[in-house]
Design goal:
The structure is a homodimer of 506-residue chains. Chain A has 506 residues and is of the alpha/beta class. Chain A is 54% helix and 12% strand. In chain A, strands 2-3-1-4-5 form a 5-stranded parallel beta sheet, with helices on both faces. In chain A, strands 7-8-6-9-10 form a 5-stranded parallel beta sheet, with helices on both faces.
Chain lengths: 506, 506
């Protein structure tokens, strides 16, 4: 879930200085409109200590008109507060319509920390999230715009950041013992955060994960998100529709400045080392080894009635078919099924979009390979506009939920994105066109999809960010070299199986 | 919650025979339209054993075209099913678009029974409801119409029904040992049911509670609900809008036949014995006794830091003010506050509608009396159209949640509906008009509200059905006699306080 927020995204001082004045003007203009609006804006910051929560809140107060902003941070409840129900203090502090409320260490703080420190079980954490879900839902139902930012740092980045804060006498006071305690518990902290974000990211109150290493990048992302979300909410509520439209017209140039800088940021795919390869001898040996290993593990899995579901997604011509064949070669034909996912059948179209995946779940001990999958909704259907934005946005939660039911039932689930570069795809397309018996594989559609490469790249990035979880992680496979890709996939499956079998035995 | 389903509602054979043909024709016509629609209808039946779940499912199959209906009932999962995640069997059985699926003993069955038999704690029950909520949400999000019926019987009615089924050789097989076991556990069963219904009644998948004693009444309610819900969903999805409109035109007479019979059914208010009264001597003595008792209990409550929230609702001129004054006479002025709820202030209008009630929650040990309350949303705001239907419908869940936070914090919560008959109100209005110093109390609005008596009565009935819970029950007060009403209120508060203090001590 946090992979895409550990890429080292940053913005140079020059770029930031170029976009800042326009963005700030827009935000001030929107804030003026907001004062007449019939809803409040509730913005919540949480995340890794040192990832810039306080700095961002300060910046918002600096850039916008602070008379219409209320900032609230919470510590231990007072006597007054303890004598009332838990949420009284948050209700009391809600901003009225037309104002912005910034919340630090608020309603997610206690459940997160108590889970990290082991005072809550996972089930109790979920229980503690229930009133939060209701709280945010009732606020949104009454019209509030609810924005939640998770400011993220990797563990090494957190260490560096805390050290640098400590060194500067002006900021040393910011670093508390608790911060270092949380740093020591980084893994637990992230595991709890992942569950919280997965459970509480709703259409009406979405989490946005922001990489917190670079102050300028983080500020630009948060402020740009604010601008877009407030503008869209004003427009959706029919408030000052005209003014918002005019503002958009005016500020198109400013917007362009920001949006020109932000997408240049590395995506999760650009962080892959695409030069990885295997020489023929190593490949032959590794293939044989992994095949033997898989065959052995699968016999054990069938005996243990341990099922496996494998998901393959990737660019056209990334080699999904060949990889799947190498893998299934290690298995007995009766024990696996490859499900190619193309356009749904008539029967499938008459059902919920997940129904056709549910129906293919195999009996205990079997392997089900999905050649393309339920991720079609957030990839091709999103990019091609085959479903509404509302539908693919809510699909992340539906998919997480579906996969949680699989893994919760003890099924081993591996998900692969086979990645090739645009150049490599072109080479493969051209080669296909030249080989007679492969010509049929190349269609007009392949060329059309190729033109939408950046849109697909964005969709893949979002998919990994929203659906790569501890229980069901994505494996990104560097597939410019087919041998390398095949071995990596087989090895990943074998590792997953081995660890699941080991857990069963315990 | 189930009070309104224990009133002995029934329909005579003649009335039923008069409405049946029209209703049946409408349902068949709607079913034809449904076949072209882009959504399935998912109807779930649950409830007390013997309340007519099976009979209703049979009747639907008999009245409508069974080729477009799929009925599913679940027992112990098969091997096949056990090898897949829990919800696999429900996904597998979902009706396709255009069809109706009837579900018996389905996804609510196990959580309910496991809670009744003590294998799930309350927290674990909530945990088990989470995947159900998600399941229904994703179905509804994709367009499905989800209807849930809770068929209810009181415990004596259940006994009678099971005995009568057993006596008839044709139906004796229907009564299982489990049925009698559930009968023995009736209280636990109802407590679990209440929690489930409260937690899972959502706008997109509402529970409808149906009194199950009389077969004709129960059938008419379910079938009429089906007709209205399918018609509305077809219209809302823009399917066959014209045909639905025509159908409505055609079937107006049939509709009228049903709707003429159903509202004649007793409401929860009509079940009150409005002749209750107290003679002056008894009243004087009881008043003094309860006052002394309250004063004593309140001193103990202040010491124990036990807070109380009292809610007063009722018809105009039902005597709320006088009752509240008698009650607060027993208290020390510094320990209580009476909050009269009229139109919201400017500051309050700028906030969520519940905010103004949250802000009035007092410190530990205090008494807060709400003269009118948050129930305004489902009473006056509903009837007068001051808020959208969507808003007051979702308010039941919001209110239950709010009150759960109060009682969960240990606050004693009593809710009173002061009921007078329309005749008594007229007498009081007229008397007010004749006494100079009371004239100001009588406004044009009072007369206008009076004209909407049946609408308010329906709203009160729904309010009690949806918000009278074990943790926060409504007390309906027969208030034609002011002395009787005052004593009943004081006694109820004293009893609640006594039992809360007793629990604290333990």
């Amino acid at each position: 879930m946090f992979e895409a927020a550990e890429l080292g995204r940053k913005i140079s001082r020059e770029d930031f200085d170029a976009l800042a004045p326009g963005l700030r003007t827009d935000l001030l203009a929107l804030q003026q409109q907001l004062r007449q609006a019939d809803f409040p804006v509730i913005i919540l910051f949480a995340g890794v200590d040192g990832a810039g929560k306080n700095e961002t809140v300060n910046l918002i107060n600096e850039w916008m008109d602070p008379r219409w902003i209320e900032t609230r941070a919470y510590g231990q409840p007072s006597d007054e507060e303890r004598e009332r129900p838990l949420f009284w203090r948050f209700w009391r502090d809600l901003p009225p319509k037309g104002k912005i409320g910034l919340f630090l260490s608020s309603w997610y703080h206690d459940p997160l920390i108590e889970r990290v420190e082991g005072r809550l079980s996972v089930a109790e954490l979920d229980e503690a999230l229930t009133p939060i879900l209701r709280f945010e839902k009732t606020l949104a139902d009454e019209g509030a715009l609810v924005l939640k930012f998770w400011m993220h740092l990797s563990q090494p980045a957190q260490k560096k950041r805390l050290k640098s804060l400590e060194k500067d006498p002006l900021t040393a006071w910011q670093v508390t013992e608790d911060d270092w305690k949380h740093y020591e518990q980084y893994d637990k902290f992230i595991a709890a955060a992942e569950r919280i974000i997965m459970r509480t990211s709703k259409g009406h109150a979405q989490w946005r994960i922001v990489e917190g290493v670079d102050g300028r990048y983080r500020s630009a992302v948060v402020l740009q998100t604010l601008k877009e979300a407030i503008g869209a909410h004003l427009a959706a509520r029919g408030v000052a529709r005209k003014v918002v439209a005019e503002l958009r017209e005016e500020t198109r140039d400013n917007g362009a400045a920001v949006t020109a800088v932000l997408p240049q940021q590395p995506s999760i795919l650009s962080s892959l080392d695409m030069n990885r390869t295997l020489d023929p001898d190593t490949y032959a040996q590794a293939l044989q080894e992994q095949r033997a290993r898989l065959a052995r593990l699968y016999r054990a899995a069938i005996e243990a009635r341990l099922s496996t579901v494998l998901v393959f997604e990737g660019w056209d011509a990334a080699g999904k078919g060949g990889t799947i064949r190498r893998l299934t070669n290690a298995l007995n034909a009766r024990d696996y099924q490859v499900i190619p996912i193309a356009a749904p059948t008539e029967e499938e179209r008459a059902q919920h979009y997940l129904w056709r995946f549910w129906r293919h779940l195999a009996r205990a001990g079997r392997v089900t390979v999905f050649d393309r999958s339920w991720y079609g909704r957030v990839l091709v259907e999103r990019v091609e506009g085959f479903c509404s934005a509302e539908a693919w946005q809510r699909a992340y939660a539906e998919i997480n939920d579906f996969e949680q039911q699989l893994t919760g039932h003890g099924i081993v689930l591996c998900k692969f994105w086979l990645h090739i570069t645009a150049q490599e795809q072109l080479t493969r397309f051209t080669a296909r066109g030249e080989i007679d018996y492969k010509k049929w594989k190349l269609t007009e559609e392949d060329w059309r999809n190729r033109e939408k490469w950046p849109l697909y790249e964005q969709a893949v990035n979002d998919m990994v960010e929203r659906t790569s979880t501890r229980g069901a992680p994505w494996t990104l496979v560097e597939a410019n070299s087919k041998p390398y890709a095949r071995v990596k996939v087989m090895q990943t499956v074998a590792d997953a199986l081995e660890s699941a079998l080991f857990k069963r035995k315990k």
